[in-house]
Amino acid sequence: MILLVDMDAFFASVEQAHHPHLRGRPLIVCGDPSRRGVVTAASYDARPSGVRAGMPLQQARRLCPHALYVEGNPEKYVALSLRLLDLYLSFTPDVEPFSVDEAFLSIGGRSDSIAQGRLVASKIQQLIHVRHGLGASIGVGPNKLVAKMAAGVSKPRGITGFDQPAFQRHFWLRDVQELWGVGPQIATRMRSLGILTVGDLAHAPTDMLQGVFGVVGPQIKEAANGNDETPLVPYYRGIDAKSMGHEVTLTEDCRDPAFLEGTMLRLSDQVGRRLRTERYVGRTVSLKLRDRRFVTRLHQCAMPEYTADGLEIFRVARSLWQEQWSGESVRLIGVTVSNLARRGTADVGELFEPQERRQRLQSAMDFIRNRLGESSIVPAGSLTHRRRLGHVPFGPPAMTRCPPKS
Question: What is the rounded distance in angstroms from the CA atom of residue 137 to the CA atom of residue 115?
Answer without folding.
Answer: 16
